[in-house]
Amino acid sequence: MYPELFNYIDGQFVGGRDRDGQAVFDPATGETIGHLPWASRDELDHALDAAGRAFEHWRSSSPMVRAEVLRKVAALTRQRADDIGRNITLDNGKPVAEAVAEVMNSAEHIEWSAEECRRIYGRVVPSRDPQVRQLVVREPVGVCAAFSPWNFPFSQAVKKVAAAIGAGCTVILKGPEESPSAIVALARLFHDAGLPAGVFNIVWGRPADVSRHLIESPIVRKVSFTGSVPVGKQLAAMAGAHMKRVSMELGGHSPVIVCDDADVDQAAILLSRYKVRNAGQVCVSPSRFYVQSGVYEQFVARFKAAIDGVKVGHGLDEGTQMGPLVHERRRAAVTELVDDAVSHGGEVLSGGTSVGEKGFFYAPTIIAGVPDQARIMNEEPFGPVAPLTRFDDLDEVLRRANSVPYGLASYVFTTSIKNATHLSNGLEVGMVNINHSGMAHPELPFGGVKDSGVGSEGGTETFDSYLVTKMISQI
Ligand code: NAD
Predict the structure, then answer these.
(1) Which fold has domain 6-251+453-474?
(2) Where in the chain is the domain with CATH 3.40.605.10?
(3) Which H or E run includes 200?
(4) Which atom of ligand 1 is closest in space to residue 329's alpha carbon?
(5) What's the fold here for domain 254-405+409-434?
(6) Which residue has its alpha carbon closest to ligand 1 atom 44?
(7) What is the C-alpha separation between 173 and 161, in angstroms, rounded?
(8) What's the burial of 370, exposed, middle or buried (CB within 10 Å: 0-12/13-18/19+)?
(9) 319: exposed, middle or buried (Cβ count in 10 Å: 0-12, 13-18, 19+)
């Protein structure tokens, strides 16, 4: 059974099936599985008030206390991972093994914040007068409004909430209305771990109304959003108008560069796995494939064999490797991009169609010979589609790879150190993966440049955007 859903405000679960809200669907069947209750305006104000009051004591809590709560949350997360993962599969569609892995990996992120929050150091700066003591201290920024997406409904929220709470901030989170169960589960974890009331709150409602209400409130000092570039820009502009800090983890359009000297078979197998993960609805999904002419045919043949072997189905069915898209809106967007690529001369080698009568399935798709002017080479596909094109020399491919406004992740396959160095220096992105994918570990910073965002989540950088700097000079 799909769980009942709630807001979580000032330490209380607030909900009920009879209040205003919206339906939640299983994207594999299109059937309604739950009801998401919205918070009223008064309840949004209650959440703001609670987060503001809680900040007054949480800001000066010992990092040891914050670490202890976070460690308890991590332990409970592992205990409940199967249950949380199964519900993610129901409202998001991803295969249950991927969903459970997302939850287990999140436990590591929470532990990382628990460990690192004890190392938020300041510094003592030598002074020009021996009587003067100069200190630089880092303090929590204040109440944070956070907005997290549906593609990794648990882990994307965890990255924000664990860092903010570890830094001494309080949080009001609006999660994804498409896949809300993981967010309610996260609130339960913090509640059961003994987090004081008001430090973490979740609210639901019309996204634009909730974000405006929270961002414009003088109680909120920081805005963190993960989602699409257009919405990120809107929220950053609103935050800017009130001089509030932002961190933005936005869309990407990851170039893949397969060089003539690459281990082509290995590249094709790895890239087929990365491509169908979460049905391609991943901000770092490989999404523009540039293959050097000498190995183009070999790569296409191996990649097609791997993609054609992918088993598509309900995420709870055994053996399913790829589930549906999260909603009909995404399927329509993917279909438009594929049609446009074909009208520009691209050749569909695999897929290219919806699958089945029920749900929002789209087949794993390869389109060969896609020119740079096609929309799919410029707009993030966010679906299981791989557009392929050839290149001849490295400077040409760098220019083409850097030609879009996105700058999140990238992939390079080569056995040459010279090529690896040249490409990793030249790519305008936040993350470069050479001969594998090695991102999103808690100890590594994750984030983009250009339109792909501002700030990093993970690594020692994870607290930077939740802290402000204060200088103290004392005589
Ligand atoms: P969308 O922009 O229509 O909605 C995506 C999410 O943004 C929804 O969950 C919604 O709650 C939220 N949202 C929309 N308007 C908002 C507002 N004014 N205030 C606060 N939240 C708001 O996009 P979609 O069709 O669901 O997803 C497609 C795009 O979203 C992709 O192209 C991708 O760029 C982006 N996306 C990115 C990530 C990421 O990890 N960076 C994750 C999910 C989606």
Answers:
(1) Aldehyde Dehydrogenase; Chain A, domain 1 (3.40.605)
(2) 6-251+453-474
(3) strand 200-202
(4) 25
(5) Aldehyde Dehydrogenase; Chain A, domain 2 (3.40.309)
(6) 227
(7) 8
(8) buried
(9) exposed
> Distance (Å, rounded) from C-alpha 251 to C-alpha 235?
14
Instruction: Look up residue 368 and give its DSSP letter.
Output: E
Indicate the top mutation candidate among 174, 225, 231 to test ligand 1's pocket, ranked by most ligand atoms within 8 A of CB: 231
Distance 227 CA to ligand 1 centre (A): 4
DSSP 11-27: TEEEE-TTSSEEEEE-T
Residue 318 CA to ligand 1 centre (angstroms):
30
Residue 17 pLDDT: 81
Q: From the candidates 117, 144, 169, 283, give the one annotated as an active-site residue.
A: 283
Task: Mark whether 259 is an active-site residue.
Answer: no
The answer to whether the CB of 10 falls within 8 A of the CB of 47 is: yes
Number of other residues whose CB lies within 10 A of the CB of residue 192: 12
Residue nearest to atom 37 of ligand 1 (CA): 227
Q: With contact defined as beta carbons under 8 Å apart, do 201 and 10 qualify?
A: yes
Residues of the chain with CATH 3.40.309.10: 254-405+409-434
Residues contacting residue 197 through CB under 8 Å, at least 6 positions apart: 10, 11, 12, 50, 54
Residue 86 alpha carbon to ligand 1 centre in Å: 23
Atom of ligand 1 nearest to the CA of 251: 34
Q: Tell me how crowded residue 376 is: count the other CB atoms within 10 A of its CB.
A: 26
- Whether 249 is a known active-site residue: answer yes
Amino acid identity, position 279: A
* Smallest CA separation from ligand 1 atom 23, residue: 228
Mean pLDDT by 10 residues, the chain (475 residues): 97 91 97 98 98 98 98 98 98 98 98 97 97 98 98 98 98 98 98 98 98 98 98 98 98 98 98 98 98 98 98 97 97 98 98 96 98 98 98 98 98 98 98 97 97 96 96 97
With a Cβ cut-off of 6 Å, ligand 1 is lined by 147, 149-151, 176-178, 207-208, 211, 226-228, 231, 234-235, 249-251, 283, 329-330, 380, 382
Q: What pLDDT sits at residue 18? A: 84
What pTM does this model have? 0.97
Helix (H, G, I), strand (E, B) or coil at 172: strand
Catalytic residue among 177, 178, 249, 457: 249
Q: Residue 469's CB: how many other CB atoms inside 10 A?
A: 9
> H or E element: which one contains 467?
strand 467-474
